[in-house]
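G., the chain you wanted modeled:
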Amino acid sequence: MLDIKFIRENPKKVKEGCLKKGVKVDIDEFLEVDRRKRETLQALEDMRSQKNKANKEILQAKNQREKNKIILKMRELDRNNDRLDKTLKELDRKFNDLILQIPNLPLDDVPIGKDERDNVVLREMGEKTKFDFRPKDYMEIAENLDLIDIKRAAKVAGSRFGYLKNEAVLLEFALINFVLDILVKKNFTPVIPPVMLKPEMARGMGYLEQTDKEEAYFLPQDNLYLVGTSEQSVGAMHAGELFKEEELPRRYVGFSTCFRREAGSYGKDTKGILRVHQFDKVEMFSFCRPGNSQKEHQFLLEMEEKLMQILNLPYRVINICTGDLGRPAAKKYDIEAWMPDQNQYRETHSTSNCTDFQARRLNIRYRDSKTKKLEFVHTLNGTAFAIGRTLIAIIENYQQKDGSVLVPEVLQKYTGFKEIKRK
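Predicted structure as tokens:
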């Protein structure tokens, strides 16, 4: 959430930020609720002061008549206190509902736009893969090599699922081992987090307001959400905690299976494993000092690009516009890999700077060594590998004329083989 003091002092800027993100929130209503809440709190304080004064007057009363008069006054104060308490609870509920709807504000250098069509291409890296034959679709190749089976997955679990098989499984674990080798050397702590979240933790990370609740898988009997990305449970792991300044940045690399309904995407990418309900992902997450978050954001982007470059996959970097940011992010970059058969770039990575938006909700702080004050940390996330989409990019870019697929050189020591071919 945003700092309430900032909202009070900068209502125009908050309104502009909401407008840029395309989020409808009545800031004037919120400020009115905030004003009434503060007035009610002050009235309760005044009433408690009057009750304390009345208690002293009872002790000083000279006779029973004076005591009875003071007792009647206290009963009236109690009735008013109950009424104000009830009013405060209702105002508290409205206040919390409204402040949770206010998104993180975009940083000043974020391009202004309504949706993904207004995103800005920053650079294209690597030559687009060219073949001396007509490239095939990754699913045609994968089915011929018995790497992906979506027909049996549909039989077992329904649409938007797939079985990874044979060398594809080994390739997934090769990607995981490869990225862990690189990131652990960069002071990332490896973690396998829970794939379920309490509602207050999902809300704290800002994802219940970001997307339609139909997007998330919810288990009502257990009151738990399945994570849509491992950053949700990694980011929440330090809720209510206090970092030492010298501990920052605290970096994690998490691996987990993720779950999404893909609500609203029906009819898009229905074939294959590009857009599925269940997928594996390796995610970077960082807690850092506020003054370092933009530098840390560039670092995460550099790590994503380094991984793509080592795999020798052509890609481009996208600066996401205000209308495509999502509620928690103040700034975001995407990386899109070149897909030869599709003759287009497709998203494989993203990295977001969420500033103190999530930390405020989850109360994650550190003590500044100079001011000695408690401050909220900044949180950032970045995709290391979305496994399914990375496999797609490898299959499409490393395909051979005979239908085989070469394994990127850096992964060969993990797989134990250099190519995947029909048996």
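Residues 116-420 form a domain with the BirA Bifunctional Protein; domain 2 fold (CATH 3.30.930.10).

Shout if anything looks off.
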